[in-house]
Design goal:
- The chain has helices spanning 13-20, 49-57, 61-67, 84-96, 284-289, 304-313, 345-352, 374-377, 379-391, 400-408, 419-429, 508-517, 577-585, 606-617, 622-625, 674-680; strands at residues 5-7, 39-41, 124-125, 160-162, 172-175, 179-180, 183-186, 194-196, 255-262, 269-276, 452-453, 457-458, 461-464, 474-478, 481-482, 546-548, 554-555, 636-644, 650-657.
- By secondary structure, the protein is α+β, with helices and mostly antiparallel strands.
- Among the domains are: 1-48, no CATH class; 78-110 and 204-391, no CATH class.
- Strands 13-14-16 form a three-stranded mixed beta sheet, covered by helices on one side.
- It is globular, with a radius of gyration of 26 Å.
- It starts with a strand and ends in an 8-residue tail after the last helix.
Length: 688
């Protein structure tokens, strides 16, 4: 059945502006169609002023904090009662500890600036060509070599520069498939430098509200305790898997736990260790945490068994040679007088996790060569849960925008936005179409809250009216993942790719074959057709006529603190928020068959563009800018590229990130945007 069509009159732009500013308006629409009115599908209609106001009120973060409890992972069998604060301390120490990876790499080495990475020297990755294979680094727009000694300049952006930034058909002044990634471990080979990641590092702040993580969604919503891949880690998730003794599915690599049973004699008991598999829902952050430490580029490619042995037996103490502020909001009580912590990771784990995950009943002398003590064997479980709980505390919800939403909801004393930021919010909600992908408290449709369509229906895959890759009249895509036309899709297929086992990352690529043939699905997820934006609650009678639009699609990031998290997009190819807005205003850079139908020219004028940038700046939480609790942290030394000496040798530049306590940085030393730092350093950058 076709979707309904309705004939409506357009709304007055001024009414929309008044609505999001909280001023009561009444919109009168024509009761009957008249000549010249446009026939539209219902999902394409402009929202009414009341609908816009309701959408704005749903961006209230305070009410979401209450609802968020309904999707917190169940940890009763994992954590000891009352030990969540200890788990957070463990997670914070592990996240910032430079002993974890090789060559001084910590998780925080790529997430130290508002949860992201703002370095400019030595950050370029050669990207991928149309065959998907890694490429070499090109010369930059300003003529720089782009190697480990080169610091990106403002004139190097955007990476796809047009003669007329308002038209994507304009002549290209410059184009490169290079990516601004993050530096990993020291590279082997004749050239100095560190390996760099193939995508830009997103912020970890507010990441706890994401249904899946990583740009391509490969960090699964289900945490298995051993890898980012959830149920995909089982030997064959599409068939009946081999079972453990406790009936859990057998994974390629498994956790171990202690089991205590009645002994042979009355009143006696016996304990032994057996393999088990974990399946913890709504724990994508824990899944994500297990990726970078074993990645060969990011942190050195050690195994989790190696990491457990090292961190529990080989290091002097947690955060060794890293200063911890006396008033650190989490680690202060555990700080060592000189550096690091005065308590070991072993002790923190034993205090935090239930005994059956670490108290080994076996005699260490009887362990086989390939066996490790239980606490080392399960280190990946401890790491993932602890880092997830730490990152879940990094909630940013005190921006001027949050004050504005509070004022719309009538909270006494709340201060509404004004001037350009208020006008920009109107553009955001209407002509800019930003709210289509950046709605809800997270300002992202990839989060838990925003994937609830109509409050009752989950929409983890979505149906849209667009011509599919093979000419289909409609297409499906993964909710929260969009092809924007940032780069040609063949360079990086995003969620359209596969995991290391050969299974599709995309939920759509699992769901449509299931509808067509009944084929099993790798992941557990809910599809409710009543949540579809088009043809809601109608069965898909001809699934062969539905296309799959996921190639080149990436997760929609939150816009909170976006002022501080540049450079932007999955390739880091835009340095300023104005460049980002101009990209959307011209309808993207590389139109393609799987591009979201919402990415089309917006025809915003310069005042609207400037106001939209002002609104985006209003999303900055000053606690994040000045690293006040919970965004304070230990000291960290990171690589900042290389410098060539007079004798022709190369020396690595090390940047010291200072320890910050709960009160944060002095105002003059608070974090700056990528754009502002580029401008301030313009006189001393380049190859010098």
């Amino acid at each position: 059945m076709a979707s309904r069509t309705i004939i409506v009159s357009s709304l007055v732009g001024g009414s929309l502006l008044l609505a999001v500013m909280g001023i009561q308006v009444e919109v009168i629409s024509a009761a009957n169609p008249v000549q010249g009115q446009e026939v539209q599908h219902e999902e394409d209609l402009d929202p009414t002023a009341q609908e816009i106001l309701d959408l704005a009120k749903e961006m209230d973060f305070q009410s979401m904090r209450v609802r968020a409890r309904t999707f917190e992972p169940m940890l009763d069998d994992i954590l000891k009662p009352g030990q969540k604060p200890m788990a957070i301390a463990l997670g914070k120490a592990l996240f910032w500890d430079s002993q974890l990876g090789r060559d001084g790499q910590a998780c925080a080495s790529c997430h130290f600036h508002a949860g992201a990475d703002n370095r400019r020297r030595g950050q370029l990755n050669g990207g991928r060509g149309n065959d998907g294979k890694p490429g070499s680094i090109n010369s930059t727009r300003s003529g720089g070599a782009g190697d480990a000694t080169y610091a990106l300049q403002s004139g190097d952006f955007p990476f796809h520069a047009l003669k007329d930034p308002q038209k994507n058909t304009s002549d290209a002044l410059f184009d490169t498939n290079d990516v601004v990634g993050s530096q990993g471990i020291v590279s082997a080979g004749p050239n100095p430098g560190r390996g760099t990641t193939g995508r830009n590092a997103p912020t970890v702040i507010n990441a706890g509200f994401q249904f899946r993580t990583f740009w391509d969604g490969r960090a699964n919503n289900h945490f298995n305790g051993v890898s980012p891949f959830g149920r995909r880690e089982t030997a064959d998730p599409l068939s009946q898997p081999d079972s453990n003794e406790d009936k859990t599915a057998k994974s390629r690599h498994q956790l171990m736990r202690v089991v205590t049973e009645a002994g042979d004699q009355p009143g006696s008991s016996k304990s032994y260790v057996r393999p088990v598999s974990l399946d913890l829902r709504n724990a994508a952050l824990a899944s994500q945490a297990l990726g970078p430490p074993v990645d060969p580029v990011e942190m050195g490619g050690q195994t989790w068994l190696d990491l457990g042995h090292k961190m529990l037996t080989k290091i002097p103490r947690p955060l060794y040679r890293q200063r911890v502020a006396p008033n650190d909001s989490v680690l202060g009580p555990w700080r060592h007088a000189s550096d690091g912590l005065r308590v070991s990771y072993r002790e923190l784990i034993q205090r935090t996790f239930r005994d059956h995950w670490w108290r080994d009943p076996r005699d260490p002398r009887t362990l086989k060569q390939d066996e490790l003590p239980l606490i080392e064997h399960n280190f990946s479980l401890f790491f993932g849960i602890a880092v997830m709980l730490y990152e879940s505390t990094l909630v940013s919800d005190q921006s001027p925008f949050d004050e504005h939403i509070a004022s719309l909801k009538g909270r006494p004393g709340a201060k509404p936005l004004s001037g350009d930021a208020a006008l920009g919010f109107s553009v955001f909600m209407t002509g800019g179409k930003c709210v289509d992908c950046h709605r809800g408290p997270e300002l992202s449709v990839s989060g838990f809250e925003s994937q609830r369509a109509n409050k009752e229906h989950r929409e983890q895959v979505e149906l849209m009216r667009m011509r599919g890759p093979a000419g289909e009249p409609t297409s499906m895509y993964d909710s929260g993942f969009y092809n924007l036309g940032v780069r040609p899709s063949n360079e990086d297929v995003g969620v359209g790719g596969e995991d290391r086992f050969g299974y599709p990352l995309s939920l759509t690529k699992q769901y449509l074959p299931h509808v067509r043939t009944g084929q099993g699905m790798v992941d557990e997820f809910t599809v409710d057709p009543c949540g579809f934006a088009i043809q809601p609650c109608e069965p898909i009678e001809r699934p062969e006529l539905v296309g799959v639009a996921v190639k080149g699609a990436f997760k929609t990031p939150s816009l909170r603190n976006v002022e501080l998290t540049g450079p932007y997009m999955h390739n880091g190819g835009m340095a300023t928020l104005r460049q980002v807005v101009e990209f959307y205003n011209r309808g993207g850079d590389f139109p393609n068959n799987e591009q979201s139908p919402d990415i089309k020219p917006l025809w915003l004028n310069d005042v609207q563009v400037r106001s939209l940038v002002a609104f985006l700046n209003s999303l900055t939480d000053e606690r994040v800018r000045c690293e006040q609790a919970p965004f304070d942290h230990p000291a960290l030394t990171i690589s900042d590229g290389y410098r060539q000496e007079a004798n022709g040798t190369y020396r690595e530049i090390r940047r010291e990130i200072p320890a910050i306590g709960r009160s944060g940085r002095p105002k003059a030393a608070c974090l700056k945007s990528f754009e502002d730092e580029s401008r301030l350093d313009a006189g001393k950058r380049g190859n010098s």
